[in-house]
Request: fold
Amino acid sequence: MVADWRTAPVREELRAALAFIEKQTLRPEELTAADAEAAYAAGVSKQALRDAARVSALFNMIVRLADSFGWDVPTWERLLQRAPAMLDGGYVMTAISKR
Reply:
């Protein structure tokens, strides 16, 4: 899967969702309703595609902001320190503000 999602042994629904979010990430100006329809035809529900697109969009935004502002990626050790809090509270703003 990590090496190449296109040839990985995954369900067709996942492959279709990944194709959609790849285009959303790399070529957003080319994304059309036909791309969503292709995912639906492969068995992806509207809610699942919305969820995948939303998560992808948020990560895309975070990465682009980080690149623009020169934000550093935390060290592996720092990420491990933060992991328990993220597992407990997730990305909910109230959980973040309590840290």
